[in-house]
Amino acid sequence: MNLLGRLLKGFRFGVLPVPGRLLAVIFFVFLFILPRVVHLSNYWLLVLTFCSIFAIFAASWDVLSGYTGQVNFGHALFFGIGAYSSALLWKYVAQPGDAGTVVHLLQPWVTIPLGAVCATLAGVITCFPALRLRGPYLSMLTLAFPLMLLGVVFSFKDITGGEHGITEIPRLAATRFDEYYICLIVMTVAVLIMWKLTDAGSRYVRTGLIFHAIREDEIAARALGINTIRYKVLAFAIGGLFAGIAGGLYAHVMQVAGPSTLVLPMSFQAIIWVVFGGIVSIYGAVVGAYTLYPLVEILRGPIPQYRLLVLPVIVILVLLFMPQGIAVWIRNKIERECPRCKLTNVAWRKECRACSASLR
Amino acid sequence: MFDILVVMTLFKGGVYGLLASGFALIFGMAHVINMAHTAFFMLAAYGMYYFMLARGWGAWQAVVVTVVAVTLLGVLAYRFLLNRVRHHPVAILLITMALAMVFQEIMVLFFGNIFLGAPSIMPGTTTMLGVTIYNQNLLSLAVMAAVVIILWLVLSRSKLGIAIRTTAQDAEIANVMGINISRTLMLTMGMATALAAVAGILVSPLWTIYPHMWQSPLMMVMVVVILGGLGNIKGSFVGAFIIALVENLVVWFMPSGAYLKTVFVLLVMVIILVVRPGGLFGIVFEEERL
Predict the structure, then answer these.
(1) pLDDT value at position B290?
(2) Do B226 and A137 touch (CB under 8 A)?
(3) Which chain B positions have a beta carbon within 8 Å of A271's beta carbon?
(4) What value of ipTM does the predicted structure carry?
(5) What are A315-343's pLDDT values in tens digits?
(6) Does the model's pTM come out above 0.80?
(7) pLDDT tens, A236-263?
(8) In chain B, how long is the greatest CA-to-CA distance?
(9) Is B219 an interface residue toward A (CB < 8 Å)?
(10) Element (H, E) at A76
């Protein structure tokens, strides 16, 4: 009862008066009830499942590159490692069964977290050459890693399956409907964790504030006694962990862990979604993934041959008029920060809801 | 056979150098990572194909029209797209990437998703010191050398070059000194695009022309620019020849592993970056070092 009361109180004072958060809650409720209210074909369920997976992927890029400022051009490394290690663990941790069959000992719900752990380790390892570099140098160094791994994948064709990848790995769940809910729940939890970890105003975790400090001025952060190296490693680990989860989910939904998880477009897609939605805001990544990915599929119907032309044109137009990204632009339109107590208010209020300072 | 390696390295290094110097120029000036840089290179190659084969023009008319048209396109793209979001570096990154995709898709619509080849500007071969070289390669090397000298003269001697270098060092002070930042940036973008266009024209008879041909050079150009030290044009050329040599050596020593040439190029870049975090000729300020 106490917990419920606290939740209700949090909803009443923390969510209802802040339109951005209210919209986010409505969005998630909408996603949770959508397939129960409307009958969606398997195809659209799959599209929305991919949206959830890519939202995790994009948000993890935002934690590492948007918040901490370590602009990573090779985020597909973590995605691909998550996918490949999950598939490899499933395939090779096995024992011979009766009559030539193979019994696989690990199921997806074990291999996906283990794959994410591998991706986290990859994040920590990439960190070591990356810690000395900054700005575009760091971006190019990180860009190199997934492509180098791709070379390794093609060199050991008998283990990794070369360009076909590791095929026939088990599905996440029996139906697309269940897969949709699994991915949606994982996405909600992951995004909430990342949002809390990067919340600069949090009273419980300092990481958000420190990530901002590292991005804005690393020297000043060090001068304040913050071990910036440790927090950069942490940012890489968080980015790797969640991208690895996304990669594992993707592999099991596709039933293939192939080289397409490591290629350059995969890395850049994360950047495109985040920048389109709004960088340095976890919800921007979610909005970007949920807007652009289905848009490609929607455009496939009426104008198949102009699809790839219309999409970049939309991106250009949106960014010309809202260079901060679409989610941040909307947030700035509907929210206003009180100049005195820094509390977020609805933009059309005349005075602050807490300290009644004038907002005009 | 070894001399072919030398010629190929010189040619490829020259192309990468031309592309990378333009990329480095606009990066050093405006801190714009221009992902559409090699898309202009692709447009120039298509321009040569279109004017020479489809229109049947002479080589020199086609060259002039292509360079002018592509440069104009670059200037317009800067004036109407990039200039507006100059203060949002990630938005610029994304807009230029989207622009490259727009160019690519327009080329797919007009010419189809097929491999094309443009006719040679200067057909035939020459035998020099016992080596037979395509005249096209010789012409390319001569043009590259000429362009490098012109670029160096413009940057070091002309008033525009001084304005460009001043803006690159400190845009605010340059503005106070009466330099029109917006105009200088636009002219720099024009110069950078013209360099890309020249590179595109030079490779058009030798490389296959297809709508995705900008992607692999783009990565190589970014590697070259990082290797040489950002915004450093001398470094770009040195980096270009190193990368071209590595690419050719990989193909030379293991023809079956040609798909690994990108991996080796990236490996060289990673090693150099680990040893020298600012690239070969880049400057890392002491207070910035960790």
Answers:
(1) 40
(2) yes
(3) 90, 93-94
(4) 0.84
(5) 888 888 888 889 999 988 888 888 887 77
(6) yes
(7) 999 999 999 999 999 999 998 889 899 8
(8) 59
(9) yes
(10) helix A76-92
Question: What value does the mean pLDDT of chain A take?
Answer: 88
- The first and second tokens of residue B7, run together, are 């010629």
Rounded to a whole number of angstroms, the distance from the CA of A295 to the nearest CA of chain B is: 15
A56 touches chain B (CB under 8 A): no
Which residue of A133, A309, A320 is in closest CB contact with B277? A133
Does an H or E element contain B271, and which?
A: helix B261-275
Cα gap A75→A139, rounded to integer Å? 10
Determine, for residues A150 and B277 on separate chains, whether the beta-carbon distance falls below 8 Å: no
A331, two tokens: 């947030």
SS3 string, B142-194, reads: HHHHHHHHHHHHHHHHCHHHHHHHHHHHCHHHHHHCCCCHHHHHHHHHHHHHH
**What value does the mean pLDDT take over residues A288-304?**
85
Q: Does A125 touch chain B (CB under 8 A)?
A: no
Q: Which residues of B touch A140 (CB under 8 A)?
A: 222-223, 226, 269, 273
Contact A136 B94 (CB under 8 A): no
Hey, are the CB atoms on A315 and B95 less than 8 Å from each other? yes
Asked if A312 is an interface residue toward chain B (Cβ–Cβ < 8 A), one would say yes
In angstroms, the separation between the Cα of residue A179 and the nearest Cα of chain B is 32
In what helix (H) or strand (E) does residue A166 lie, and over which residues does it extend? strand A166-167
CB contact under 8 A, A319 and B270: no
Q: State which of B15-19, B122-126, B137-141 shows the largest mean pLDDT.
A: B15-19
Say which DSSP state B209 is in: B
Instruction: Please count the CA atoms within 13 angstroms of the CA of B97 that sit on its side-chain side.
Output: 21
Per-residue pLDDT of A104-115, as tens digits, reads 888 888 899 999
Residue of chain A nearest B287, judged by CA positions? A219
The distance of Cα A290 from the centroid of its chain, to the nearest Å, equals 11
Q: Which residue of A lies nearest to B83 if distances are taken between CA atoms?
A: A320
Kindly tell me if the per-residue pLDDT of B287 is higher than 70: no
A81, A196, A65, A199: which is closest to A134 by C-alpha? A65
What are A151-183's pLDDT values in tens digits? 889 888 888 888 888 888 888 888 889 999 999
Query: What ranges do the domains of chain A cover?
Result: 41-269
**Nearest chain A residue (CA) to B84:** A320
Amino acid type, B171: A
Q: Determine the pLDDT at residue B284.
A: 57
| A278 HSE (CA, 13 A, CB side) | 17
The tally of CA atoms less than 13 A away on the side-chain side of residue A284 is 28
